[in-house]
Amino acid sequence: MDYSILQIVLVFLVTFIAAIDQFSFLESLYQPIVTGMVIGLILGDLQTGLIVGGTYQLMTIGNMPVGGAQPPNAVIGGIMAAILAITLKLEPTVAVATAIPFSLLGQYGVTLLFSLMSPAMTVADNYAHEGNTKGIDWINYLAMLGLGSIFGIIVVLFFIGGQAFGQTVVDAIPGWLMGGLSAAGGMMRYVGFAILLKVMVSRDMWGFYFFGFALAVIVMAAPSLGGPALIILAFIGFALAFWDYQVQTKFKQTASVNNFGGDEDGI
Q1: Helix (H), strand (E) counts: the chain
Q2: Average pLDDT over residues 188-217
Q3: Average pLDDT for residues 24-35, to the nearest whole number?
Q4: Residue 224 has what DSSP assignment?
Q5: What pLDDT is attached to residue 239?
Q6: HSE of 157 in the Cβ direction (CA atoms, 13 Å)?
Q7: Pairwise CA distance, residues 149 & 112, whole Å
Q8: Which of 44, 81, 201, 229 is the most buried (most CB within 10 A)?
Q9: CA separation for the pair 193, 57 (Å, rounded)
Q10: pLDDT for the residue 188
Q11: 10 Å Cβ neighbour count for 21?
Q12: Other CB atoms closer than 10 Å to residue 13's CB: what's the count?
């Protein structure tokens, strides 16, 4: 696939902005489902970008930093997955699995920048004691510039130089290994959901979870119902959640209003 200077510049800018957004803007522009769509638009294959971005989003949905430890970075991983899928014509699941090493580079880049910026915290404390808000602003601008530049350079280097090399590597991969990568990439979305459920699930909600899973399996058994029925199921899920919220709210209000006393009054 041939690419232009404009495409290279746009890929760098998207990566630069997404890297900053992950830690500073917090507008969810860095999410793989967003970056995959944008990269797809830039490289002329929106559908593949959306599919790869959605697949990578499911994989990383449960990832979160714990303390100073950083998970594999979703910005570089998601962008590189879309680039690999479009430029090398890979299956989305294969591209997601192949992009994992790039997400580790992003993880190392974040850790490196955090380490380099640690001494600047003393300077920031001094600025705070002096009331020097501009100095604190410039420290933050420096960190954002460093993070965006690291991510942008990594992606652009592999985007420019990695296509020919990547095609050679892909052609050399035997079919059984390519099938394994596809299976691994397909499983990662379920791993992401498992991590999310482990953190968020409540024992009281298991009934709703199994109910939704059963409905989804029944609907997907009929291919003609796959698209519209899933949207309908989403509305059903929202209706049940809203109904449960209203019922629980009314119970709490009733309990607070109808307070008839304790055991000491003999009732």
Answers
A1: 11, 0
A2: 69
A3: 84
A4: G
A5: 86
A6: 9
A7: 13
A8: 81
A9: 10
A10: 61
A11: 20
A12: 14
DSSP letter for each residue of 240-260: HHHHHHHHHHHHHHHHHH---
Q: What pLDDT shows up at residue 267?
A: 46
Q: What global pTM score does this model have? A: 0.65
- Contact status, residue 82 vs residue 49, Cβ threshold 8 Å: yes
> Average pLDDT over the chain, rounded to whole?
77
Cβ-based burial of 42 (10 A; exposed 0-12, middle 13-18, buried ≥19): buried
The SS3 call for residue 218 is: helix
Task: Give CA–CA dist 264/217, Å, rounded.
Answer: 54
Cβ atoms of 77 and 32 within 8 Å: the answer is yes
Share of the chain above pLDDT 70, in %: 70
Name the residue among 94, 81, 265 with its Cα closest to residue 182: 94
HEC-encoded secondary structure of 98-130: HCHHHHHHHHHHHHHHHHHHCCHHHHHHHHHHH
The closest of 74, 82, 93 to 39, measured between CA atoms, is: 82
DSSP 124-186: HHHHHHHT-HHHHHHHHHHHHHHHHHHHHHHHHHHHHHHHHHHHHHHHHS-HHHHHHHHHHHH
Instruction: List CB contacts of 200: < 8 A, sequence separation 6 or more.
Output: none
Contacts of 114 (CB under 8 A, 6+ apart): 68
How many whole angstroms separate alpha carbon 211 and alpha carbon 160?
Answer: 48
* Residue 14 near residue 39, CB atoms below 8 Å: yes
Distance CA 194, CA 198 (A): 6
Q: Are 74 and 31 in contact (CB under 8 A)?
A: yes
Sign of CA dihedral 70, 76, 80, 81: positive
* DSSP H or E stretch at residue 48: helix 46-60
Residue reference for tokens 């199994």? 210
